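Dear support,

We are seeing what looks like truncated structure output for some complexes. This example has two components. We would appreciate it if you could run it in full and send us the complete token output so we can diff it against ours.
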Amino acid sequence: MELTKGKPNLLENTFAETLYIYLRIATASIKSRMEYRASFVIFLFTLLTFYAAQISTIGIVITRFKTIGGWSMGEMAFLYSLLILSQGIVTFIFSGILDFSTYVRDGTFDRFLVRPLSPLSQVIMGGFEITGFAHIILGFLTFVMANSLIEVHWNFINGVVFLAVVVGGALILGSIRIIIAAIAFYAVNTNSLVHLFVFSSREFLLYPLNIYSGGLKFLLTFIVPLAFINFYPAHYFLNKSGENLFHPMFVFGTLPIGIVMMLFALWFWKKGQNAYESAGG
Amino acid sequence: MTYLKFISKAFQRSIAYKLEYYTGLMNAFLYIFIFTSVWQTVAKESPGALGTWSGETLVSYAILSTLIKVSFGRNESLLTNKIKTGDIVYDILKPYNFVMMYFADSFGVSLFQLFARAIPLLIFSLLFFGVIPSVTTISLLQFIPVYIMSFLLFIMFGFMISSLAFFFTEVFSFMILYSALVTLMSGSVIPLNLFPDYLVKIIAWSPFPYLYYYPTTVLIGTPIQMEYSELILRYFLELLIVGTITFTIYFSGKRKLEFAGG
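Here is the complete output from our reference environment:
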């Protein structure tokens, strides 16, 4: 597709052309990442080592104690696979936004504002991260492992629900990233917030929610609804009793909550962007 | 005197970042909540699988190992940024020892972490969890040298990874690798005595359990499967090995830099 021929103004681009531009930005981002091939391979290897270490720690606990909060090894693997699959999509799409506070701090964000494209989409597509594949492969492997250890009834409807859960989980995780990034419009340096809300908070999801105290359960359900990424939907697939749930319908809550959170995140971003004053003065 | 100034500067720098301070505290709370919840749950579900430890010992371990981890601090980008930007050249020319400066800076950051993070967290944990770790005067006295040596190991690991920036464009991958090894083998997540015996024997020869597992077990007075004097000797050995690797990387990197500078 020729982008400029016969188009005097980029503002007149059709949807397809705009999409094409975003794809070009994402491709450029992947190409620049792949330019340092050795670094990329080392990164991929270390990333997999990190996840292997994480899985091993859970494996050691579960091998010794047989269950954690009534969840067996297969069920824990299922819980983990839901998290990692959603994480994979988020890593693919929302990695660029993690460094957003740097753009605000050094004034680079101004560059995105003068282009006839959505600034948020530019930030996102400019940081497209190919290593999301590693997460998806890992998520798939743990999913296969879970299915070999426990019996999960699969049919077309459950397959569709599963996909909806993974997408919903990705929307929840992605919206948290956008909200934290938008805080940079007010707080400038959000690195520690990124660390806390994006990386550390995920650690809660490595274990079933029912092991935590009432306050934490409330927090992870109603304030930062991370429990909808894996704990609640896992009840549906694993046919587990709903005594740990605030409400039995919560097992279907992942996608609706993901959509609501994403809408809120986009509104919050817009609000922050309107309040933005360039660091350049 | 110069290095005392570096310590003080690092301490003051840490105070300046208030948001970072509070989120750091919350981060530590988060890990304490996760680990204590896990250990309380499994101790209740399968008390027979705990071995020689009780549920309370496990909870105390989770709190204290997290606090020890929180009390260690270093400026991860101090050396890497200087290498990337080339500013390291100016630092080497300055009338102080750069390695000593790095260590002094890490010491300043850690002092801040100890007093502003670890101690308030300890008070909170004692009140919130109601678990009083079985720390005695003897275990506390035995803990101090072990803690100092673990801290030295911690700084040397940081300096080793940062020094790799002389050879690689990006050292982030090495940080992840280090983080993976620490997660699995340092005892920061699972105490080593819950591992299968054959794994414990292997891991005990790596430097990682000397970061958090041994300091915590010495502090709470649980058996360490060896004499205290042997543990100290092993610490010296680990410091020697890690130190040799660290300084070999740093000095060969520095030589490479001088060569490139012409």
